[in-house]
Protein: Alpha/beta hydrolase
Organism: Eiseniibacteriota bacterium
Amino acid sequence: MRRSLFPLLLIAAALTLLVSRDPRTSAPPHALGAFGRGPTVVLVHGLGSRATHWLGVARDLARDHRVVLAELPGHGLASMPAQLALEDAALSLDRQIAEYGDEPVVLVGHSVGGLVAAAEALRSPSRVRALVLVETALRPQLGPADREALLSSLESDYAATLDAVYGSFGRDSAQGASLAREAALMEPAVMRTWVRLAMTTDLSGRARELRVPLLVVLSERSWPEDELWPACADSLGYAGLASAEPVRLEGTGHFVMLDRPQALAGAIRRFARGGLPELALAGAR
């Protein structure tokens, strides 16, 4: 087991040292290595996040899967194109998946990374055999005025805005502060480009074209205990997706993979094997 975890440690060390590298002088996005043996699972981080946030989940899944950590453009070691559209990010992800062969993968995306993963499943369905979206809203959650206010705030007071936004994502104030510090390592222009893209992307209509099994994993904050799934699905853009299997993980904030990595890995594993996660049975009331 120790030997199998060694690649994980190397990846973590490399990302810790190089996470602040200027993406404009970095390499094109590429997957950060594969570890473990078995069916391939590709993990995609979210906006202002790190691939290392997946390490707890990856360590668990690597017991019986090959795990690939993908990078979004402008994050970590990956360069940022002058212009960025969702299709560009999906193409970048497609190339990273292709680095590890033609086998259809289980594709897992967190938050904005889930939007990119969904776009990839739509553009290249032959590459994806199952899709897992973690804390991903398929439709914009802010109106035009609020979007512009957030973008303006990012321009006028970058650090304070990230403190407020990422602070609200943490399970507690300490985690929120840590997430904000990591996000602040991104170039402000890169962050604003991604925020604008995320806030104006609506895949709720196109998602009905998905032809792969879909697991939707939400935190207790995104899916309140007293809310039925149809209402939650409508709010987040999943209404009408009969194939979507919802899972609510208690004791989690937005960064589910940090808060309950083993529970998330277990849900992914059962879904990848064609089963329905136990929590989905209770959650889809």
Q: What stands out?
A: The chain has a mean pLDDT of 87. The first strand starts at residue 34 and ends at 35.
